[in-house]
Amino acid sequence: MSSSGDERITDEVQALEAILLKDVVVKRVGDVPKYIIETIIHPLTGDNIDQQYVCVTLEVGLSSGYPDTSPEVALKNPRGLDDMILDTINTHIQDKLKNNLGQPIVFELIGIVRDHLTKSNLPRGQCVICLYDFVDGDLFIKTQCYHYFHNHCLANHFIAGKKYYHEELEKLPTWQQMQVPPYQQTCPVCRCTVSCDVDTLKEAPPPKSSLSAPPFRLTAELKELQMKMAELLAVQVAKGGVVGMGDNGPPLLTITTTPTTDNASRNNVAGSSRDAQPGAGAGGARHSGGDAAAADTQPRPPYRGPYRGFNRRGKPGRRGRGAR
After folding, report:
1. Residue ranges of the chain with per-residue pLDDT less than 70
2. Domain 140-214, second-level architecture
3. What is the 8-class DSSP label of residue 43?
4. CA-derived radius of gyration, the chain
5. Start-end ranges of CATH 3.30.40.10 in the chain?
6. Residue 308: beta bridge partners?
7. How is 159-170 classified by DSSP, letter by letter?
8. Which runs of consecutive H residues, i.e. helices, occur in the chain?
9. Which of 43, 124, 120, 117 is nearest to 83 (CA)?
10. Which segments carry the region annotation Disordered (predicted)?
11. Bridge partners, 133 (sequence order)
């Protein structure tokens, strides 16, 4: 990178940091100087931050040759935006890069993205609880993690979750109930901790699409799908791939070791020496052929050392030797 190009990049980065302050993060990576600029963009809503329903992270990479070469631009972590809006924003960004080659462009890219977010400041897509789209007139809520739900749906979700929590809590013994953390509301999508007033949410009417939707009917296609899913679940349970199914749960992992050749030869030598000792025949006569073979193959318990208990005077001390 030439010194003049490096100076132009440095000047633009310093200008962005002066304008955006804490809203921009600048990273310098690699041996060859390369700047990566990241900023989270929200729609323009004035002082009403609660009315910002969409956002996206703009990442711009300034490498060697900038601004004579186009920077690398990416839109990451979109919230409340569908693919159609993202494609439109990317198209306008690419057009801007082609028409303004050789000029500082990062701040103008931020303006393009912000204008699109301001025009599309409504969540797009479906509510993950009821699977109905957001339409005009629906009352919805934005969580702290920028996920959207109908007020009616989220209230029912929290009510059902709290009921299930208390039902499972009552199954535990009293001493264990004291150790269980209290119920906490979490986002149905990312499981982040959220705080919502359920009493206010449940006063909202259900989604309009659900009121006009046809009643649910179990069709032949759904029955066939249920049978396939039941067969798949049975296969996974048999393989131990589903935790918590059945009375005893999945089978435990069993680790077995095969004796090596050296260990087997040593065991054979030790067995022959025991048979050659005096009295081995008399001792062997007590067992039948199968029992004697089983007794020889049973492993001996490990030596546990002397028993460190209490002596006859009630003081700690040595009280005989442990079993070998």
Report:
1. 1-5, 31-33, 243-324
2. 2-Layer Sandwich (3.30)
3. -
4. 36
5. 140-214
6. 318
7. HHHHHHHHHHHH
8. 3-20, 83-99, 106-119, 151-170, 174-177, 198-201, 208-212, 220-238, 261-276, 280-284, 289-297
9. 124
10. 254-324
11. 126
187 CA to centre of own chain: 13
**CA-based nearest residue to 7, from 110, 72, 104, 74:** 104
Question: Structure tokens of 134?
Answer: 């957001």
* Paired strand residues for 318: 308
Please report the pLDDT score of residue 313 as a whole number.
55
- Tokens 């259900």 belong to 206
Domain 3-119 superfamily per CATH: Ubiquitin Conjugating Enzyme (3.10.110.10)
Nearest to 78 by CA among 87, 91, 70, 69: 87
pLDDT at 322: 47
CA separation for the pair 238, 232 (Å, rounded)? 10
Angle of helix 106-119 versus helix 3-20 axis, rounded to 10? 40
CA distance 11 to 3: 12
Token pair of 95 as six digits: 């057009």
CA dihedral 17, 18, 21, 24 (to 10 degrees): -20
**Which tokens hold the place of 80?**
């409340």
Separation of alpha carbons 52 and 29, rounded Å? 32
How far apart (Å, rounded) are the C-alpha atoms in residues 284 and 277? 11
Please return the burial class of 16, using the count of CB atoms within 10 Å of its CB with bins 0-12, 13-18 and 19+. buried
Query: Where in the chain do CATH 3.10.110.10 domains reside?
Result: 3-119
Contact (CB, 8 A) for 33 and 61: no
pLDDT at residue 282, as a whole number: 43
Q: Are 143 and 70 in contact (CB under 8 A)?
A: no
Residue listed under structure tokens 């009510």: 159
Instruction: Give the pLDDT confidence score for residue 283 in this predicted structure.
Output: 44
